[in-house]
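Hey,

Quick one before I head out. I ran the complex with zinc ion overnight. Inputs first:
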Amino acid sequence: MSAEEVRFHLHGEFSCPLTTRGKATGEHCLQHRDGYVTDALSGKRYDELLFVPEHDTCSVEIQKVTIGIDFHWERTETQTFAGSLHVIVDGGKLLVINIIDAEEYLQSVISSEMRATASPEFLKTHAVISRSWLMAQMEKQRAQSAKKTCESCIRTDTEWIQWSDREDHTLFDVCADDHCQRYQGTTRIVSPAVKEAVEATCGIILSYGGKICDARFSKCCGGVTETFENTWEPVVHPYLTRVSDGHAPLNTDLTDETQAREWILASPPAFCHTSDKTILEQTLNRYDMETSHFFRWKASYGQNELSELVAARSGIDFGRIIDLVPVERGVSGRIIRLRIEGERRSMVIGKELLIRRCLSSSHLYSSAFVVDRETGTGGTSFTLHGAGWGHGVGLCQIGAAVMCGQGFTYRQVLSRYYPGSIPEKRY
Ligand SMILES: [Zn+2]
Ligand SMILES: [Zn+2]
């Protein structure tokens, strides 16, 4: 969490090893003042503060933690955490870091990402990929901290291509939001089922060629999964490749505009093409359930509305938007380069996350869409017909939940979405 001020309640006794303060407990309010962590009550200043629990039963309750930053479910809530609390100054604000055991973190992440009522095999699937992803990020970060990393953005007058990466986290391992994995401490009660799934797979990660897999996942692939390099940096991970999320292999080439259009509008069978309420309810969180149509979806804009939206979201004045033209699609039909044609200027933008951000006041479900432009008496309107929810790389959460409901084991599910990978016990 990053904020000007943080209010929290320490339940139980905590020690403060970085200061001469004695034990700490109860209500606290810390503020950023002149580059210091400042106690709002006493006015005392610190370079940093660390609160370490004295007992297993201690917890920290933090007020106004923002979740779903920039997404349509953004809101603030009071959250509870186990482990230690480290407060430092970063970028003119306070940075609040929770220090916690990896297996405990996983129990929380799985409870935050999924409902604890999901099937045991699905929870095990998630435990393994969340653990792999975490370990892969930590390994990558350590390797990168020595050398400054490559560019993650190309920006000229006619082109703006930006891919998501994690180079921004240097002071901690993972953030608590969807950028990494949703982590909400122990706010959502960790159920015995989640605890069991994490314990049953303790230390198991996915490996490929002896290396820990960067096991990405998203909500709903839309029928076919995307490759890693089309979404993030140009590195090929053979296990993050195109997988058909149905029983039959897919013969359609979704990088082809005509075939992509036909496929997106057709709504074909796939594991994630489900309206099984029980599975959706068991798998999605309360705020995810607010989004019910994601396998195929539609978004409509008037011309002025779209022009204002794009200007506000991109910070670029295109004038009135005349057309949206897909320039390049990835293997899942997701647009990775889109030309925005305006009366004042035209520009190609990418990759999928930037496209989704520019075309919606929160985030468009995915960049796998086709554009229908219609001109009538009321002016021009744009309708986007889309497929899937999220970047579509790696495991499809809804698809995997359906597979587990049909009796597949977590190992079968993993080998399907991450071809060539094997589960391996590392500790
Ligand atoms: Zn992050
Ligand atoms: Zn899917």
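The pocket of zinc ion (ligand 1) is lined by residues 166, 169, 174-175, 179-180 (CB under 6 Å).

Talk tomorrow,
K.
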